[in-house]
Amino acid sequence: MNINAPLKKGRKYDQVVAGAREVFLKEGFEGASVDQIARDAGVSKATLYSYFPDKQALFMAVLTSQCMQQSDEAMGIEILQQPVPEALYSIARSFLGYLMSDFSVQVFRVCVAESARFPDLGRAFYESGPQQALDQIASYFASEKVQQDLTIDDPYLAADQFLQLCRADMLLRKILNVETDVSDEAIERIARETVKMFLARYRR
């Protein structure tokens, strides 16, 4: 299986990905069948296979599309133009909102469960999600705008610290079903405290 092989796109590509997203969310990776995905997407299996060689490639297309959407929301130009403390809060709030979503948690569980059998799947998940977030936040921390307010010598280390502060214990509790519902108030509190701690360490 070549997870990173280029995929053909066409007028029904987005339709297939949208249908697959719902099936993967309901059934998980193992439980999702190509027949069900094709049926829910409203396409034939032949059409589905014309875009995706296998279920793994389809799963990664779903993941990649979600990560791109999250990236646009968390690191949009209107956010990056805000004063640094406000931008950090917006980034943390958006990141936490996605991280605690049912879809994100389900994808994480699936990739952990399948990564031993399909190492490419785990690697592609990391590169499409966590690595992309790390790269984008590190790039922001290295920018002239941020460097005017914060003293950050190692943007990648600082980005990792920022993301780890965001996750807190809340993510583990959600993954393990200790806590199935995370309130907006809890997310906002963690985002605020993340920014306070980060600024206490790096503010000039």
Account of the protein in words:
It contains 13 helices and no strands. The N and C termini lie far apart (49 Å). 74% of the residues lie in helices and 0% in strands. The chain has a domain at 65-202: Tetracycline Repressor, domain 2. The protein has helices at 13-31, 34-41, 45-51, 55-74, 77-80, 84-99, 102-114, 119-128, 130-141, 144-147, 155-167, 170-175, 184-202. The protein is mainly α and 204 residues long.
What's a concise summary of this model?
With 204 residues, the protein is mostly helical.
Q: What separation lies between the terminal Cα atoms?
A: 49 Å
Rg: 19 Å
Fourth-level CATH superfamily of the domain at 65-202: Tetracycline Repressor, domain 2
Largest sheet properties: none
Layout of SSEs?
Blueprint: H1 13-31, H2 34-41, H3 45-51, H4 55-74, H5 77-80, H6 84-99, H7 102-114, H8 119-128, H9 130-141, H10 144-147, H11 155-167, H12 170-175, H13 184-202
Helix pairs in contact: 1-2, 1-4, 1-7, 4-8, 6-11, 6-13, 7-8, 8-9, 9-11, 11-13
Task: Describe the structure using short key phrases.
204 residues; mainly alpha; Tetracycline Repressor, domain 2
